[in-house]
Structure formats: structure tokens, C-alpha cells
Amino acid sequence: MSEDTGIRLVLEQEGPYAFRVQFEGTDLEALHTDEPPPLGSGSGPNPSHLLLAGVANCLSASLLFALRKFRNEPGPIRAEITARKERNEAGRWRIPRAEVSIHLSDPAARLEHFERVLAQFEQFCIVTQSVREGIDVEVRVIDAEGKAFVTGAGEGAA
């Protein structure tokens, strides 16, 4: 894979809890997100859905990459991810665990070096490994006059 110069998304509020997500530097259509009722209207995926979709999608793509690396030509795959929100010690909602099932359309016995594929494919998944290791997120709030406020909330906030 080639080096990446960065990822930039721009979100613009469209409703009480709805946002238009633009993928800067791409030709992709903007994505509409929204929180479910009672906060929003549920007119788009919410951040929890996007997080889980990112994990399952990345794992699926990484599995395909690993299979093809060993000259396999796998049929279509299907992935399912499930999770539950739970409150942490501070009473904040979090997703402490997710379960992913990736369904192959090929018998494992027909796939070359399948054990090696299984041993390494998760390491190719940027999203899952980043989530597992934790992502350091710096947050600034900038007011209408351009004054920046660094929140420093980190763990336990929100």
C-alpha cells in the first residue's frame, strides 16, 4: 500500500443532530448522518453505526487482501458485526465490545495457505487495530471569533 497524506472529513450540521459528511479530496458523494430519536430523526446512520461499519468493512477488505496475497480468488464474502452499548463507571454510554463474523463463500480447504491468512489478516486492518490500540484524539472548539479552546476532556468525558 502507498503512503497516505492524511484523511480529512468536513461535517456540517443539517438538523438538530444531523450532519452532512464530506470526504475531502475525493469524488465521493456526501453522507448524511443523524442520531436516532429522541435526539434526532434517525434519517441516517449514527456515529456508532459508522464506527462498527468501519471495523467490519476494514476486516472484510483485509481478509480479501490476505487471501489474494496468496493467489486465492475468493468468492463474495458477507460480514456481520454486533455490539451493545453499555454505561461505563462514569455512567457514559460506550461500546466496550463488538463481535464480527465474516462468512466465506468458499470452503477453507480450497483456499491456499488459509492458516497463514487467518494468522495475519487482522494486522492489515487499519481501523480495527487503531480502535484496539486506542486513538489519541485532540479536540479544539473554535468560536465565531476564531478563538480556540482546547478541551482536554479525554477518557471519561462526553
Compact overview of the structure:
Helices cover 24% and strands 22% of the residues. The protein has 158 residues and is an alpha+beta fold.
Point out poorly predicted stretches. none
Question: Looking at CATH, which topology of the largest domain would you report?
Answer: GMP Synthetase, Chain A, domain 3
Widest β-sheet, arrangement of strands? 1-2-3
- Strand composition percent: 15-25%
Kindly report the name of the CATH homologous superfamily of the largest domain. Answer: K homology (KH) domain
Number of helices: 3
Oligomer: single chain
The whole-angstrom Rg is: 19 Å
CATH class label of the largest domain: Alpha Beta
H/E element sequence: EEEHEEEEHHEE
Q: What is the CATH-assigned architecture of the largest domain?
A: 2-Layer Sandwich
What is the 3D form? elongated
